[in-house]
Amino acid sequence: MDGQGRVWAPLPPDEAAKAGPSAQRIAATLQRWNRAQTPVRALIEQLWEAIDQHDDWQPLADWLAVTREQPSVRAS
């Protein structure tokens, strides 16, 4: 989020192409690193409990796989 509460989201490919190479790199970075779903505290605690108490990283890996499959939502 920026200082005004707006969420940064990648530009659609046609807009990124018009904006130039810097915007294209920024858009690609946002697409790669921004999760389509933000985990709430309960989910974070659930994922961490599996890791901390059982050394089970699979729930985290599963959640990451699911969020990678979901397209990012562009803020208006």
What does this structure look like?
The protein has 76 residues and is mainly α. The protein has one domain. It contains 4 helices and no strands. It has helices spanning 13-19, 21-33, 41-54, 58-69. Helix 1 runs antiparallel to helix 2. The longest helix is centred in the middle third of the chain and has 14 residues, at 41-54. It is elongated. It starts with 12 loop residues before the first helix and ends in a 7-residue tail after the last helix. 3% of the residues are buried. The mean pLDDT is 76.
* Helical residue percent band: 55-70%
Count of the separate structural domains: 1
Compute the separation of the termini in Å.
13 Å
What is the average of the pLDDT values? 76
Class inferred from helices and paired strands: mainly alpha
Which sheet architecture does the biggest sheet show?
none
**Into which percentage range does the β-strand content fall?**
under 5%
Could you tell me the radius of gyration in angstroms?
16 Å
Number of strands: 0
Count of DSSP H/I helices: 4
Low-pLDDT runs: none
> Could you say which overall geometry the principal axes of the C-alpha atoms support?
elongated
What is the chain-wise order of helices and strands?
HHHH
